[in-house]
Design goal:
Length: about 375
Amino acid sequence: MNPLVPFIYARIPGIILQAVITLDLRAPWNVAACAGVLYACWICGQHAKTGIIFIDYSIGMEFAITAMDAIHLTLLVRPLHVFRQLKQTESADKLSWFERFTWAADLCGSPRGVGWHHQVKLPEETTKSRKEFVLARLMRAAKHYVWFDLGLFYMKHNPVFKSPAAFASQTNFVHRFLGCFVYVGTNYCMVNVVHALIVAVVVSCTSAETSSWPNIFGKWEDTYTIRRFWGRTWQQFLRRFLAPFGKKTASFLGFKPGTSGSAYTQLFTGFFVSAITHAGGDAMTNPSRIGVSCPFFIIQAFIITFEDMVIAAAQRAGIKETKWTRVLGYVWVASWFIVTATQWNTVISVAGVENGGLLIPFQYFPPSLCDILLKLSV
């Protein structure tokens, strides 16, 4: 199979959804259209498997995100009337069909709402000129590629990553944590490298505004609580439909906006919907293990609630935020994810290798710079 085929199949439901948005359908036709998009996700998912665990999980997530977007954008709101770009002067339903289609493509292609009135809070940029912006992105790509190469070197020389059975049978928690940390960190760096290079090319070769291309992830120094990790540091690609689902649920239960009942209903609903969405990655990785990701995301809502209670109690006791409370916060967050994220990554990897998936497709990566330097030094 051509390696591009799975990615082509992954885009088809999204294109169908964009076309559906342009039609501005009402009941019952919007229900039928939503069902059609969900069916397209299911059919295309049968042809999008690559056999590489992290790619299959990502593709499964894309199908699940499209499905959630379909429910949100066809059943809960009328996008042409609700959403508006910052520079938009008239309602999108007044545009021609082709203009509505490109408008819908921009809407679906910007899950964080960059350039729209519903834009989420994004990392602030300190660079001013386009040249500074491009150079900053190139430096970001180079920095993350160095870390990516170090991770790749470690995995190439660790027998655990060469044998699915060896990875799945690890019992030592420290070894398992280190393996998962390097595995996830390498994927994180790879995403940053690819994104930074694409942004550098787009901004340097087109008239695209630098403000339209923020970093995928926020600042790690903001992560001194678990709430801040999910709300500021981690990418916000699910926020567009998580927030409406949460608000609809809180309203249905009778909680007024701004109350604690509303806030925590939105919190638990958001992580529950996120868990369902990540189950799409499970399904693509191993259909017999759907749901192995869910506990990791659902438990985040409970621990954030507990964290809020502890912080509130500390504030009532007169404890103020200082450098040292933040240090304690960093230790707390790191400890939490060392335990929970390691378990999450392990169950996904085990599910993948049980289904014949590859942990790391070494044959598709360039030669490690560390290997080259090691050979030159001998």
